[in-house]
Design a protein that fits this description.
The protein is built from seven helices and seven strands; from the N terminus they run βαββαβαβαβαααβ. The chain has 264 residues and is of the alpha/beta class. It has a seven-stranded parallel beta sheet, with helices on both faces.
């Protein structure tokens, strides 16, 4: 029997009417963008491939904008334009990310650098610029899509795992600094999720079941719930942490991995 895919309940209270989402063209970023738009939130959907953002157009709730999150100056300009043209930013979702596989001894230096440039530096650039606008208003919610790979070591994923671990700690430090200003900073840490990033790692038809089953040779636990997450599963968790329903939650990491990290 197929598992139903519920969407988040309507009419949630949010800290504002404008959200910024990075990595909005596909995967988790796209799911979050559409979920927020369905809540009546105006979404500035940022992606280096803005033309691939769906649901955008004149009069729509989604406004696509091209952005390379590794460019600090460009980030500042885009955030300023969103504030000016769409209104006060109440929410930020850092969902842009890249994965570069390879063993530590063989991986190219530019793959390591690219993971940190997008997964860590990009989160820093967006979070800092948006928070500078949020702080005088005394409210806001920032959710960053991390990874359960930040919590447990993974074979051939050192660059990705290390960049995500650094980002987890950055978000918590930022949240500590901003808590007194009424701004909450949280992390959603997905495990294996059915996105183009995950499918790009698969070599054969049996790869999906292999992920669910786990692998002793790569020291990887399987997924106790017995299935891979959908992007909507992760988006639901993001919306919970963005909304005022979670108003007393900050500096928190919410794993959405079907139990794969055994409660780490």
């Amino acid at each position: 029997m197929p598992v139903s895919q519920p969407s988040f309940p309507s009419s949630l209270p949010f800290p504002g009417k404008v959200a910024v989402v990075t990595g909005a063209a596909q995967g988790i970023g796209a799911a979050v963008t559409h979920a927020l738009a369905a809540q009546g939130i105006m979404v500035a959907a940022l992606d280096i491939r803005a033309e691939a953002v769906t649901g955008a157009g004149d009069g729509a709730q989604v406004r696509a904008r091209a952005l390379d999150v590794t460019d600090a100056a460009a980030v500042r300009d885009v955030v300023e334009s969103v504030e000016r043209e769409l209104g006060p930013i109440g929410m930020l979702v850092n969902a842009a990310g890249v994965l570069r596989m390879g063993s530590v001894l063989e991986q190219e230096a530019n793959d390591w650098a690219r993971c940190f440039a997008v997964n860590t530096h990009g989160v820093h650039h967006l979070s800092r610029e948006v928070a500078r606008h949020m702080r005088p208003r005394g409210q806001g919610s920032i959710v960053t899509v991390g990874s359960n790979a930040a919590l447990v070591p993974r074979m051939r994923m050192a660059a990705y795992a290390a960049s995500k671990a650094a980002t987890h700690q950055f978000v918590k430090c930022l949240g500590l600094e901003l808590a007194g200003s009424g701004i909450r900073c949280n992390i959603v840490a997905p495990g294996s999720t059915d996105t183009p990033m995950l499918r790009g790692m698969w070599c054969d038809r049996g790869a999906e079941q292999d992920v669910v089953d786990g692998s002793l040779t790569s020291y990887r636990c399987g997924i106790p719930l017995g299935r891979i997450a959908t992007a909507q599963d992760v988006a639901n968790a993001v919306l919970f942490l963005l909304s005022d329903v979670s108003r007393h939650v900050t500096l928190h990491t919410l794993c959405v991995d079907g139990g794969a990290t055994l409660g780490q």
